[in-house]
From TrEMBL:
UniProt keyword Transcription, yes or no: yes
GO cellular component terms given for this protein: cytoplasm
Residue ranges of the annotated DNA-binding region, renumbered to this chain: 21-40
Sorted UniProt keywords: ATP-binding, Biotin, DNA-binding, Ligase, Nucleotide-binding, Repressor, Transcription, Transcription regulation
Entry-linked Gene3D superfamilies: 2.30.30.100, Bira Bifunctional Protein, Domain 2, Winged helix-like DNA-binding domain superfamily/Winged helix DNA-binding domain
Reaction(s) catalysed (UniProt annotation): biotin + L-lysyl-[protein] + ATP = N(6)-biotinyl-L-lysyl-[protein] + AMP + diphosphate + H(+)
InterPro entries according to UniProt: aa-tRNA-synth_II/BPL/LPL, ArsR-like_HTH, Bifunct_BirA, Biotin_CoA_COase_ligase, BPL_C, BPL_LPL_catalytic, HTH_11, Transcriptional_repressor_C
Organism field: Aneurinibacillus danicus
GO biological process: protein lipoylation; regulation of DNA-templated transcription
Domain of life where this protein originates: Bacteria
PANTHER family tied to this protein: BIOTIN PROTEIN LIGASE, BIOTIN--PROTEIN LIGASE
CDD domains: BPL (cd16442), HTH_ARSR (cd00090)
EC number: 6.3.4.15
Protein name as annotated: Bifunctional ligase/repressor BirA
Length: 325
């Protein structure tokens, strides 16, 4: 796989110019027959190459596929995405990432699927993701961190995703505490963080991210059409998924490094700039019951602060949050 990864990297760096079979062979350290074989395999996956005698090959177009080589080609990260596992169809990227973590996979391992048939969201909900449209991925982390601080990772991931959508995709997205990304009040992305730990240390932490990219309104089940959206619906045009994955990983790694070095304060500041919840009247639903109040913000640990009608402040650690119009 390393050969194909380097081959794609070469063609992307060539920016549409021809590369001779001899040059490719020399730089990759393989025979020209092997070069031809790898190019034919890429053609079968949807890549379009032009081949001209005495000039060589040039890459004409790239399919919207999330194979490992495509993600890693041009990925500007230090650790995140250094190991990528791609599956056309899978039950859940979270489940697969759990398997890899238990087998000793390194921090930064990414599991990506074109289609999930058993995708899961928060509180055991099903995450709907038709084939060929969305991003379903799970990232493995192995932080040296106190257990009580782990929920902050979810808020950190939300910031990285929203900043990617705002800066890279030019879409105004916002965070609804704790783990929903909204566009025009509708959910476009969910984040699920799962933990494996003992009382005194974390073995690993997995961030699952499900982002609706090119789903049309008709592709959503009827029961979620009024509350779900996609980047395609927001922009009115399809977007390529791999560059979005690369941007999320890049921004997530940079923010993660800042967090490990400087703590939650800089993450909190950026989260508040992205949040839709703060200052809004909300209904909080927990297993213990429901109440209504105003979201004041989050505290220094990431807990939601809600002011009730009597003026008291309630700390909300886990709940469904409904924002009133």
């Amino acid at each position: 796989m390393k050969i194909r990864e380097n081959l794609l990297q070469m063609f992307k760096q060539a920016k549409g110019e021809f590369l001779s079979g001899e040059e490719i062979s020399r730089r990759l350290g393989v025979s020209r027959t092997a070069v031809w074989k790898h190019i034919e395999e890429l053609r079968e996956e949807g890549y379009v190459f032009e081949a001209v005698r005495r000039s060589g090959y040039r890459l004409m177009s790239t399919p919207d596929v999330m194979i490992a080589e495509e993600i890693k080609a041009g990925l500007n990260t230090r650790v995140f995405g250094s190991e990528v596992h791609y599956y056309p169809t899978i039950d859940s990227t979270q489940n697969k990432c759990q398997e890899l973590a238990k087998a000793g996979a390194p921090e930064g391992t990414l599991v990506v699927a074109d289609q999930q048939v058993g995708g899961k969201g928060r509180l055991g909900r099903v995450w709907h993701s038709p084939p060929g449209t969305n991003i379903s991925m799970s990232l493995l982390l192995r932080p040296t961190l106190e257990l009580q601080k782990c929920p902050q990772i979810t808020l950190l991931a939300a910031v990285a995703i929203v900043e990617t959508l705002r800066d890279f995709c030019a879409i105004d997205a916002q965070i609804k505490w704790p783990n929903d990304i909204l566009i025009d009040g509708k959910k476009v992305c969910g984040i699920l963080t799962e933990l494996n730990a003992e009382s005194d240390r974390i073995h690993y932490l997995i961030i699952g991210m499900g982002l609706n990219v090119n789903t049309t309104a008709e592709q959503f089940p009827e029961d979620v059409r009024e509350v779900a959206t996609s980047l395609y619906i927001a922009k009115g045009e399809p977007l390529r998924r791999v560059p979005i994955i690369q941007q999320i990983l890049y921004r997530l790694e940079k923010l993660y490094d800042v967090y490990l070095e400087d703590g939650f304060a800089p993450v909190k500041e950026r989260w508040e700039r992205c949040a839709i919840t703060i200052g809004k009247k909300v209904t909080i639903r927990t297993l213990q019951g429901s109440f209504t109040g105003y979201a004041e913000g989050i505290d220094d640990s990431g807990v939601l602060l809600v002011r009730r009608e009597d003026g008291s402040i309630t700390k909300v650690y886990s709940a469904d949050v409904e924002i009133h119009a």
